[in-house]
Amino acid sequence: MALNSTKYFLKLMRRLIVAVDNTAAPGINVVTNSGTDPSRVYSLALTGDTSDRTIFIYHHDGTTYNPIWTGTLPTNTGIAENIPAIDLIRENRLTGLEVDDKGNFFFDLPSGHSIRIRSTAAPTVSIFAMVLVRDFAA
Fold it and tell me: What is the Cα–Cα distance from 32 to 16, expressed in whole angstroms?
């Protein structure tokens, strides 16, 4: 998804850390929203806990949950010294990513859209999604 021809200016750079809470209905947590203006997502890093966890990442357009990644976070991902967090964007694990003029992978999140995450684990799982987002304003 590319930005349209409207000129946008950098409004805000956000770093977010979101804990996965499977008690939330329907067990799908918002990782980041684009708001009224589009956003550019540069990083979506995941850390696990003390067991393997199946993770589902969705692009939500306001109506439909479109799956963009499903995978397993190995035990201790991002919390053990020798097992780094998994960054789905910087490691180019998502299909259709674009590349900016500095060689960084990213994807654009249109206005009103969000990235959501779900796990098959019990409600008290310690999985975190860390996001680096640039917000734009017209």
Answer: 8
Q: Is the per-residue pLDDT at 75 higher than 80?
A: yes
Amino acid at 68: I
Residue pair 19/107 in contact by the 8 Å Cβ criterion: no
> At residue 44, what is the residue type?
L
* Residue pair 127/73 in contact by the 8 Å Cβ criterion: yes
- Name the residue with tokens 């479109």: 66
Select from 3, 31, 2 the least CA-distant residue to 132: 31
Residue 11 has pLDDT above 70, yes or no: no
Tokens describing residue 86:
């998994």
Dihedral of the alpha carbons of 124, 115, 56, 99, in degrees to the nearest 10: -130
